[in-house]
Write a structure and sequence with these properties.
Elements (H helix, E strand, L loop, with lengths): L2 H15 L3 H19 L9 H24 L3 H15 L8 H17 L7 H13 L5 H14 L1
Helix pairs in contact: 1-2, 2-3, 2-4, 3-4, 5-6, 5-7, 6-7
């Protein structure tokens, strides 16, 4: 068992003992998503810490999107619950890049792609290829793509 998955299980046990319903429910759902990922495909396998982190990030993103939908639907109580669950999951993820740090990485990648001959909207793929490995797990793809589009439009 990976260290991150075992940490999640330990924290779940702790949350159950402390009768922390929000935390225990969130960790249960996340562990079940991890297990589902492990048994998906042709053969069962154990996920690495990075793969577990990706599952946690995906679950946190679902919570943020649900919170947004609940807010737009006028259901503030459910939105708050989803935000709280997202916060629980964020504690297991690496610190996200700030807007300034991400902008610097994107600007460097745009310059790199332009020096390689990529121009205009077609440069999007080339820039994303450069940026994605650098920011994996540190920034959401949508946020990165938006910034790359702005940089290409401005440049």
């Amino acid at each position: 068992m990976t260290s991150l998955k075992s940490k999640l299980k330990e924290d779940l046990t702790e949350a159950i003992r402390a009768r922390d319903e929000l935390r225990s429910a969130t960790l249960r759902l996340t562990l079940s998503a991890i297990t589902k990922e492990e048994v998906a495909g042709t053969s069962a396998r154990e996920l690495s810490d990075d793969e577990v982190r990706q599952v946690i990030a995906r679950e946190a993103k679902k919570r943020r999107e649900a919170a947004e939908a609940f807010t737009q639907g006028g259901r503030a109580e459910q939105a708050e619950r989803e935000k709280a669950e997202s916060a629980v999951l964020d504690a297991y993820l690496p610190q996200q890049l700030s807007d300034e740090e991400l902008a610097a990485i994107v600007a460097q990648a745009v310059a790199e792609a332009k020096s390689a001959g990529a121009e205009g909207p077609r440069a999007m793929g080339a820039v994303m290829k450069i940026v994605s490995p650098k920011v994996a797990g540190l920034a959401e793809g949508g946020r990165v793509a938006t910034l790359v589009k702005k940089s290409l439009a401005a440049g």
